[in-house]
Fold:
Amino acid sequence: MKQISAILAAVLVLVSLAGCSGSNQVDVDATVQAGIQGTQAAQAGVQSQVNEAVAATLTAMPTPTLVPLEELSEEELAQSVEDSVDEAVSAADQASDASDSASSDGEITQDELEDLYYLYYLAIDEAEQALALAEDYYDLYAELFDLTISELEDIEAQLQYIEESAAEVLTVLDDISQTLAQGGEIAQQTIENLQELGQQAAQHAGEIQERLPGWRDIRTQETDSLINQALAVLPNDIAETRAGAVSQVKEYIQSMQNAVSDGRFSLDELNTISQLGANAAASLSHFGGGDLAGLSDAVNGLTRNFAGGQLPDINRGLGSLQNSLPSIR
Structure:
């Protein structure tokens, strides 16, 4: 910065004069202190400009929409995860492309710098949103699904790499911002660092794009497998009376309520529900139609919903089944 250079030059001149002339004494300490204060003030001004640019960037960024998890089926939550991951990938690619474009001539303009700040902050924000939704998926299904969760963890790792690369780019952008504010020339190494980090973000984004279809297929396969296994469980206790059948349905409902009340699905809960459901459905079928008609299918439907992680359908189905019980004698 010209102001800093001028201050330092003046200090050197005054120090030189003080050494050559004993008759014209200069308060060197005071002059140096004044120079330091001027330098600090100038640096504070530069940092203020950087802070203002960052604040403006953050203000301009979109606000995420909260997802009501209790209203989402497994498919809907998984789709929300996929959509958010796609947005993070797109943001990382945009930021990387902007880095290449801005640095292709070996210089970075102020307008290009502001665009880069925005795009890399956006990439971080989108990655964080995707990671948050992935955590929501973990919270609900980590104890139920195995391969599905493992595949999602691999995608999560790539999202974290995007965050790390973007954060490193922001550090480089801060250096560039201060250099521009001081009227200096951006070092070639700084330009190369910007390009390399941008390419890293794009590589991680590409890895995610390759993995997403696999995650989708594994989810479908694992869910179908769990549903088939749950509905294939054979009854081991068929009631001998209508009252006994009703009692089994109530036990099944209570077990289902307990299972969903903790906000997560587990394989142990599914095994218990599958056996109780098989018993209740078999007992209801044993006593035929009338006011019991359709209830066996309702029980099996709830078991299917639990195996598939369908919380909204479970809540609706439980209410319907419970309302049917009082009429049964």
